[in-house]
Amino acid sequence: MTNDKKDNFIPALSFDFLTSLYDPVVALTTREKEFKRELVRQIDLRPMRRILDLACGTATVTIALKQSCPQAEVFGLDGDAKILHRARQKIEKSNAKIALSVGLSNEMPYPDNYFDTVVSSLFFHHLTPDSKRKTLAEIRRVLKAGGTLHVADWGKPANLLMKVASLPVQWLDGATTKDSYQEKLPELMAEAGFKGIVETAAFDTVFGTIRLH
Ligand SMILES: C[S@@+](CC[C@H](N)C(=O)[O-])C[C@H]1O[C@@H](n2cnc3c(N)ncnc32)[C@H](O)[C@@H]1O
Fold first, then answer.
1. Closest listed residue to residue 86, CA positions, set 51, 120, 60
2. Which of 55, 118, 125, 199 could link 180 by a cystine bridge, Cβ 3.0 to 4.6 Å?
């Protein structure tokens, strides 16, 4: 991996050797079922839409999207070939038809104006402010006019307890999480030209507050 790529990529649990623990850790600590169900519920899954799960990891959301809207073409992109191997195993078990690709969020392997919806869960906190900007510009490029972006990620802690709870993630994922916990993402979305940015739900968890936009 080049230095530029390293700057734009942190594995799911920060270290490669922890990737195999990703699903159980997330299930136990993030109220995963609740917040991912809500993320998918909020998307207008009309027939024949093309949907991207950006940084799909082990494809939990990707599979839920396909199951909620079988007519849609569902794509998953992730920078980590190893985690996509786990995603493929889960997809096979679910019998879903999903197109997975390895790639980075700031140079996606898709044409302009391709997707109706881009979804991303627990991802933006992996990116430096500069990579967040590049990724948001890239999302705008691949989204059709009038397309929508749905993000679930760590956000401003809802209270003092959530602030303390968020410290391990800040320690584990490092400096990139700082602006996420400072709730900078909506500002960056506006800067990238997104309109109608709204927070739609918040979930207090063992590691801080997850916010949906
Ligand atoms: C915490 S995991 C979230 C996975 C999944 N979306 C979920 O909600 O369970 C973050 C994912 O982002 C991926 N990732 C990190 N940086 C990336 C980048 N620049 N481009 C694409 N994927 C990236 C990691 O490989 C990892 O699978």
1. 60
2. 125
